[in-house]
Amino acid sequence: LEILVTILNENDNSPVFAQPNLTRDVPEDTEVDTAIVARGELSATDADLDTIYYELTTTVQDTDGYFAIRGVNNPEIYLQKALDYDKFNSTMLLLYARDRPVTSSDDTNTATATITIVIKQSDTRAPWFLPCNYLRNDTSICIGSPYAGRVNISEMSTDPLLLEPGPIYAVDPDYTISDRIVYSIVGGNTDEVFSVDADTGNLTMNKIVTSPDSFLLQVMATQASNIRKYSVATVEIKVINKSDYPPYFEKGVYNGTVFVGLPWRSFVYQAGDPSTPLVITAMDKDFPDV
Predict the structure, then answer these.
(1) Number of CB atoms found within 10 A of residue 56's CB
(2) How far, in whole angstroms, is CA 285 from its chain's centroid?
């Protein structure tokens, strides 16, 4: 008697990842749809020769939607949404491999692989002049104020000019790169009166100014290793008459009178003369007509 025996495969093996733990460095400016981890590195095997079904999740809050797999049977991980280093600089993904579909009611064996993604900051932003203020609480955009200073007419200053709200200074906002900044004057420097130190940003005079004109300089800050990353700030330099004397008040003490019950913004009157508003005045010998 010839008997044919067929051995049925029992689902008694779990899928196995060749590399259950992976780490990938991903540049911030990686283009959407770029493969991050290849299919061959993530494919699981099953001794039962079952079809493997994959699912990808993230364990870090607010990092959903950035990474995805190509399909339920293709575990290649790709970038699905543009990255922003200021929002997060790392995340952890979990890749599940099952030998039955997620919706199946059959007994299912599962394996898990952990993929750590480290975001590397890219050179994406131009220099910022300081001080600056973030635009609507967006830390990726910082708006600087124009600089302002004064020089005396017909007088040569050998020291760096004092400016408001502070000295010319710019930084690379991609702070993990922190490229060196180079300064130059690109406009408004009539007769080459001023020069700027390429390394420090200090503004100095090359010659005296003989007319009471103002200068509106454009100072450019460029990244040393990437000249396409630059910013321009305005520096207004007013030419004024030299001030040798401080202002002084015409009186050492002013006496005033107020009346009970007067409304807000009512005048304070001179003491002893309730019909004349109190006026406090100062003079300056340098500017007798002002």
Answers:
(1) 16
(2) 48
Q: State the pTM of this model.
A: 0.72
Burial status of residue 269 (CB atoms within 10 A of its CB: 0-12, 13-18, 19 or more): middle
Residue 107 and residue 98 in contact, taking contact as beta carbons nearer than 8 Å: no
Domain ranges across the chain: 16-120, 128-240, 246-289
What's the CATH class of domain 128-240?
mainly beta
Q: 16-120 is classed in which CATH architecture? A: Sandwich (2.60)
Largest CA distance in the chain: 139
- pLDDT tens across the length of the chain (290 residues): 999 999 988 888 999 999 999 999 999 999 999 999 999 999 999 998 889 999 999 999 999 999 999 999 999 999 999 999 989 999 999 999 999 998 888 889 999 999 999 999 999 999 999 999 998 878 888 999 999 999 999 999 999 999 999 999 999 999 999 999 999 999 999 999 999 999 999 999 999 998 888 999 999 999 999 999 999 999 999 998 888 889 999 999 999 999 889 899 999 999 989 889 999 999 998 878 87
Q: How many CB atoms lie within 10 A of CB 135?
A: 11
Q: Identify the bridge partners of residue 26 per DSSP, sorted by sequence position.
A: 119
